[in-house]
Design goal:
253 residues, 2 domains, two-stranded antiparallel sheet, 2 strands, 70% helix, flat, Cobalt ECF transporter T component CbiQ, ECF_CbiQ, ECF_transporter_component
Length: 253
């Protein structure tokens, strides 16, 4: 894939987790999340074991816990939904601090919070220890269709370009005294959105013509090999293997 593309979610480092090939980390996170999802919600101690495993990965990768906690704010909408479930769900009720709460709703809220948070933290650690371009190379190594990988690569590269274009258009509107106050201003915003679409489309055509003129034939050049050895796969298997052991241990207890 082409030149590097820094991303604000990536935390540069030289830890053993950083050095693992991306396809190994992708498979490890996928298996770990599947183990978490398959665990019955009543196995509370199993979820505590999963959290300790992720904390150990963060420590090995030297990812600050404060950074991880700050980035988990992305799941706040799901947290809000989970907090409503004990009040709106039906079934047997329990009383706590003068509140009447649904027992099924409490279990449902716990299920969403525990599994969702563990999945989010695993994704945060993956993004913090793997460059986005390497993630795409790892996905390609896992036999994802090349066309889909290239679409994702271009989206990653030019998302910031489009965002910067939006910022310049907003500054231009503000310099002319425009400030959106009510629905009457929707026409101006709609025109701006249309102009942004046209500019992005034209930019895409120019980029494609430039690539074709440089010999592009439907596949981006690979500038870094991300091959994985048996040792890499063994190291990456530590997290999902420990999670599966914890899941099995608690299921038979």
């Amino acid at each position: 894939m082409g030149a590097g593309h820094a991303h604000r979610l990536y935390l540069p480092g030289r830890s053993p987790v950083h050095r693992l090939p991306p396809q190994c980390k992708l498979v490890a996170v996928l298996v770990f999340v599947l183990a978490v999802v398959a665990t019955p919600r009543e196995r509370i101690w199993a979820f505590a074991a999963y959290a300790l495993l992720l904390a150990a990965v963060a420590a090995v990768a030297r990812v600050p816990y404060r950074l991880v906690l700050r980035r988990t704010a992305i799941e706040l909408p799901f947290v809000a939904f989970a907090l409503l479930m004990p009040f709106v769900a039906t079934g047997e009720r329990v009383h706590w601090l003068g509140l009447s709460l649904s027992e099924a709703g409490l279990w449902g809220a716990w299920n969403i919070l525990a599994k969702g948070t563990l999945g989010v933290v695993a994704s945060i650690l993956l993004a913090a220890t793997t460059e986005p371009r390497l993630l795409l190379l790892g996905v390609e190594r896992l036999r994802m269709p090349a066309l889909i990988v290239q679409i994702a690569a271009f989206m990653l590269r030019y998302a910031d370009v489009v965002a910067e274009e939006m910022r310049r258009m907003r500054i231009a509107r503000a310099s002319r005294g425009f400030e959106a106050r009510d629905l009457r201003d929707a026409r101006v915003l709609a025109r701006s959105l249309g102009a942004l679409f046209l500019r992005s489309y034209e930019r895409g055509e120019r980029v494609h013509l430039a690539m074709v003129s440089r010999g592009y034939e439907g596949r981006m050049p690979v500038l870094r090999d991300v091959g994985a050895t048996a040792a890499h796969w063994t190291a990456a298997a530590a997290l999902p293997a420990a999670a599966l052991i914890a899941a099995v241990a608690w299921s038979v207890s």
